[in-house]
């Protein structure tokens, strides 16, 4: 694989067992493809400094709600982190260095700031992959609260999540357990990259879309839809041999896919049988 140095660092990081993956480092390696001169250590040091400053502000009583309130005060009142509601689909909201520098982000990148600072003060928190709006929660038994990092660290409950999903989809939604499932580190990174994928696809920046899909496939090589999408992007970019390989592999894995006839026509056009 002919990877850039940033891609190599990302690949090396995700070769570890899931719990050993350093999310902050991996997120900075994602950003490093956009900003080749980025120094990840500089931003890791910023997170260390933030945690040290927060430690000085923590209450003597380490009740979870008090800790969350202290983190919220520090991140949102003192440092002025906030959700970018004006330009939500700006790709900079998905680059961890930009989020730290500008103190603006989307739910998942602000959640990462929160998780990394919490981890450094030994307050265990985990990511929650709610559809359409990423959340976090304390990883503590019998504490059934969620924190919305995009909305100033607002503390919400399961019923609130159901209401938000209903608002998001503009129809009643019944909360399913999987909607509030904890995400693995690989799933976290894939969700970040999926955001970038769709932003760049909408902007028709196909090389950058391809880079996002390639990294999703490094995380999860078996994702057939990403394999198909990579093949289609290769086709649009004129990388026809690579397109043929991916699209043929896609059909081999899911020969009865809904779009199989479309993919076969495309392969015929490329002079290959589907």
UniProtKB/TrEMBL annotation:
Pfam families (alphabetical): TPR_9, Transglut_core2
Database matches in InterPro entries: SirB1_N, TPR-like_helical_dom_sf
Coiled coil: none
Source domain of life: Bacteria
Positions of the Protein SirB1 N-terminal domain: 42-193
Family as reported in the entry's similarity comment: Belongs to the UPF0162 family.
Name listed for the protein in its UniProt record: SirB1 family protein
Species the sequence originates in: Nostoc favosum CHAB5714
Top-level taxonomy: Bacteria, Bacillati, Cyanobacteriota, Cyanophyceae, Nostocales
